[in-house]
Design brief:
CATH topology: Alpha-Beta Plaits
CATH class: Alpha Beta
Radius of gyration: 14 Å
Strand content: 35-45%
Number of helices: 3
Number of strands: 4
Largest sheet: 4 strands, antiparallel
Number of domains: 1
Distance between the termini: 14 Å
Length: 97
């Protein structure tokens, strides 16, 4: 079952200029990870410090494997250096509705 993961970021105001490069760097590994169907970056039209990364995964297991990878030294990224807060929410796609 397809999973949508939404990672909401609150950027530090002083990091807005650096954010595109760090997010791009981070998403290279995300997009190449097994089970990733793609991701999009969205920016709040009234608040440039509010960013949401919308990821599509083939399954909960694929997303779980990706989250486990990010918790390792090999999967570490620099998002923490530009964010004041992060929130991850995952949804399943209901094909029967």
């Amino acid at each position: 079952m397809t999973v949508i993961a939404i990672l909401e970021l609150t950027l530090k105001p002083e990091s807005v200029a650096d954010a595109p490069a760090i997010i791009t760097e981070t998403l290279q590994a995300t997009r190449g990870f097994a089970g990733c169907l793609g991701c999009e970056v969205t920016v709040d039209v009234t608040d440039e410090t509010h960013v949401a990364i919308v990821e599509r995964w083939t399954s909960v297991e694929a997303d779980d494997a990706y989250r486990a990878f990010r918790a390792t030294p090999e999967g570490a990224n620099r998002l923490g250096s530009i964010t004041a807060d992060r929130k991850l929410t995952r949804y399943t796609v209901r094909d029967d509705l």
